[in-house]
Amino acid sequence: MTITRFDPFSDLFSLRRSMDRLFDDFASPLVWRTYDGETISPMVDVHQTADELIVTANLPGVHPEDVDITVTGQTLLIKGEFKADEEVEREQFLYRERRFGSFTRQIQLPVRVQGEKAEATYHNGVLRLAIPKAEEVKPKQISIKVDEEPAKA
Description:
By secondary structure, this protein is mostly beta strands. It has one domain (29-136): Immunoglobulin-like, CATH 2.60.40. 12% of the residues lie in helices and 34% in strands. Strands 3-4-9-8 form a four-stranded antiparallel β-sheet, with no helix packed on it. Strand 8 (119-123) and strand 9 (126-132) form a beta hairpin.
């Protein structure tokens, strides 16, 4: 059995770290990051039309050739790297808020898709994926035939 010394300020420090994270997320909406110090994940929007799923991801400063996109079943994986564009010594920085390093974002898609027919475009730091839905999940329009004679019971 170990005896631990009571520290009344430990909860205050924990609260302060949580508040710092909250304000960091609010101040930097372009890229979401976890606080293990390493993981960076782009923020995404996913919406659907009758025929496809549209995924939009913020990738400011990332070159399209540095991004890998794969669809396996109903799982979309976006991987890449935010690269530093200039070399500056650590002690020369007055502010350093941008994050650099590799990123991964995995999204479970809500419907079956045709990943092999997906199309990706990139414009002004925004990646847009159009992924066609599988034929069996697309809505089917059923036409009504008009019968001139009333139905007999």
